[in-house]
Amino acid sequence: WLDEVVATGAPLILSVNFPATPRWEDDDEAVMIELETLRHWQLAPSNPRRMLEAGRSFALTSQGVTERADFRERVRLAIELGLPEHVALASFTTEPARMLGVAQQLGRIAPGLIANLTVRDGDLFGRDSEIAEVWVDGRRYDVDFEVARAKAAAKTWLVDLGEGRRF
Question: How far apart are CA 134 and CA 120, in angstroms?
Answer without folding.
Answer: 9
